[in-house]
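We were asked to recover a plausible sequence for a given structure. The inputs and outputs are reproduced exactly as logged, with field labels preserved.

PROBLEM: sequence recovery
POSITIONS: 425
GIVEN STRUCTURE:
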C-alpha cells in the first residue's frame, strides 16, 4: 500500500460539520466591518521577509523563531505572513492611501503562519480577522476599534468577556521607562532566564512578556508602564478609560501587557474570554503611531486588532454556543430510468437556477438505494422521475416530512416544490 499522508503539525482540516461555526463567525465580522465603516483589503499571503523584520521587530519571538521564511527561485527572501498589520501598512503606503479621506479604515481576513509549539488553540497555520485604522490619533478611535471586537464577541454570544488594557507610552516617555525597567532588572539578573538576560539589552520591553516561570516573580514587581507615561499618553489613556467606563465595558489594567510585537505605542489591549484555558486571549491589538513612517510612509498614526478565528470556534464549543447549522439541501431528484435521468438533469438545472438547493441521485442504483441517500442527506422533498411518468409529462413529488406523495405535471414541479417549502401545501 502506498504512503498515507498526514496534515503538517500545527495545521488542521476544517471538516464540513464545523463549517457552520466558521460561516457564523465570518458573517458576524464582515457585517460589523460594514456597520463600523471598514472597507475590505485583500493582501498577499507572503511578503518580503524584511517587511516583517522591520515591522514586527527583530527582537520579537515571531521574527526570531517563528517565521516561515523561504527563498524563491529568483533568490528573493519571502515570508508567509505571521500577521496582517505589516502587510496592511505596506499596502497603505504603496497605494498612496494617505490621500484618501481620513481615517482610512480597512479589514482583511485569512490565514497567518507562525512556527509555534502547537497546543489547544495554538496552531502553525491559523486564521485572523484583522482591522486597521490609519490617520487618526483620537482615543475615540481606540474605543471604536475595541468596540468592533467587543460587539463581535457579544453577537457570537461569548460569556465572561473582558478587556485587558495597558498603555506602553510613546517615543517621548518610553525611553525613560525602559531605563527604569533595565535598572530594576540589572539588580535581579541572577533571578531571570537566559533569554531575558539577552533581552535586557536588545529589547527590554519583551522582558515583561516572558513566559518562563522563573521570571514571573521578577515581572510581578517590575515598574508599570502606566506610571511613567508622558502627559499626552496619560491623557489619551484616561480618555479611553472614560469611554470604557461610560459604556460599562469590563476591563482590567494589566501593567504587564506589552504584546508580542514591537510596533505598539500607547494603547494595547486584548479581549479575554472563558473557555480555552491558558490561551484565553481571543483577540489582541493596539496603537502603532510610528509604524507607517518606519515602513516608508509619512508620519501617520494607526490602530488595529486581530482576532484568531480558531480560538473563537474553540471558545464557542467550550461555552456551548451553537450557531445555526448550514441548512440541508431541499430537493432530491430520484431518476428511475435513463429517460428519467435525462429529464432529471434538466429539472435539476432549473431548480438550481431558481436558487433551490437540490441534489440528484447519480449512477444506476435501485429505488431503495436512492431513497436511502435522500434520507441520509436530510432533504425535504424527493422528486421521483420514472420511465412512465416522464412519458406522461409528470413526476411524483414526495414530501419527506409529511409522507404525502402526489403526481404533478413536470411544468409545475418547481412551483409545487416552492409551495411545500413555503408551507402552502
Ligand atoms: P496577535 O496577538 O499576535 O496580534 O494575534 C492576534 C490573535 O490571533 C490572538 O489573540 C489569537 O487569537 C490569534 N493567534 C495568534 N497566534 C496564534 C496561533 N499560533 N494559533 C492560533 N491563533 C493565534 C497580531 O497579530 C497583531 N497583528 C494584531 C494587530 C492588528 N495589532 C494592530 N493591528
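RECOVERED SEQUENCE:
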Amino acid at each position: 500500500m502506498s504512503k498515507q499522508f498526514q496534515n503538517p503539525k500545527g495545521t488542521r482540516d476544517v471538516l464540513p460539520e464545523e463549517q457552520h461555526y466558521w460561516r457564523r463567525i465570518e458573517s458576524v465580522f464582515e457585517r460589523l466591518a460594514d456597520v463600523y465603516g471598514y472597507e475590505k483589503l485583500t493582501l498577499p499571503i507572503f511578503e518580503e521577509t524584511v517587511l516583517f523584520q522591520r515591522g514586527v521587530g527583530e527582537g520579537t519571538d515571531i521574527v526570531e523563531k517563528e517565521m516561515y521564511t523561504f527563498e524563491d527561485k529568483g533568490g528573493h527572501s519571502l515570508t508567509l505572513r505571521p500577521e496582517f498589520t505589516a502587510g496592511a501598512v505596506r499596502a497603505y503606503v504603496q497605494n498612496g492611501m494617505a490621500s484618501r479621506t481620513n481615517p482610512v479604515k480597512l479589514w482583511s481576513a485569512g490565514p497567518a503562519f507562525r512556527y509555534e509549539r502547537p497546543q489547544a488553540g495554538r496552531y502553525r497555520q491559523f486564521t485572523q480577522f484583522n482591522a486597521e485604522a490609519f490617520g487618526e490619533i483620537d482615543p475615540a478611535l481606540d474605543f471604536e476599534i475595541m468596540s468592533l471586537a467587543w460587539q463581535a464577541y457579544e453577537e457570537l454570544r461569548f460569556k465572561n468577556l473582558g478587556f485587558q488594557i495597558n498603555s506602553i507610552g510613546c517615543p517621548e516617555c518610553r525611553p525613560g521607562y525602559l531605563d527604569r525597567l533595565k535598572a530594576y532588572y540589572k539588580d535581579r539578573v541572577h533571578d531571570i532566564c537566559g533569554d531575558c538576560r539577552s533581552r535586557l539589552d536588545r529589547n527590554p520591553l519583551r522582558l515583561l512578556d516572558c513566559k518562563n516561570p522563573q521570571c514571573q516573580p521578577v515581572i510581578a514587581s517590575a515598574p508599570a508602564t502606566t506610571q511613567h507615561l508622558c502627559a499626552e499618553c496619560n491623557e489619551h489613556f484616561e480618555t479611553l478609560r472614560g469611554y470604557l467606563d461610560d459604556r460599562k465595558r469590563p476591563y482590567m489594567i494589566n501593567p504587564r501587557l506589552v504584546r508580542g510585537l514591537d510596533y505598539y505605542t500607547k494603547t494595547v489591549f486584548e479581549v479575554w474570554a472563558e473557555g480555552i484555558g491558558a490561551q484565553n486571549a481571543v483577540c489582541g491589538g493596539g496603537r502603532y503611531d510610528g509604524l507607517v513612517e518606519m515602513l516608508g510612509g509619512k508620519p501617520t498614526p494607526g490602530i488595529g486588532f486581530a482576532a484568531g478565528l480558531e480560538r473563537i470556534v474553540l471558545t464557542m464549543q467550550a461555552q456551548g454556543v451553537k450557531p445555526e447549522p448550514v441548512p440541508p439541501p431541499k430537493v432530491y431528484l430520484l431518476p428511475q430510468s435513463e429517460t428519467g435521468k435525462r429529464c432529471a438533469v434538466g429539472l435539476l438545472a432549473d431548480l438550481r437556477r431558481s436558487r433551490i438547493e437540490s441534489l440528484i441521485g447519480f449512477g444506476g442504483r435501485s429505488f431503495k438505494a436512492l431513497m436511502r441517500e435522500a434520507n441520509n442527506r436530510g432533504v425535504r422533498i424527493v422528486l421521483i422521475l420514472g420511465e412512465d411518468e416522464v412519458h406522461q409529462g409528470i413526476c411524483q413529488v414526495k414530501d419527506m416530512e409529511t409522507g404525502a406523495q402526489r403526481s404533478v405535471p413536470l411544468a409545475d414541479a418547481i412551483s409545487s416544490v416552492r409551495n411545500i417549502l413555503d408551507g402552502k401545501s
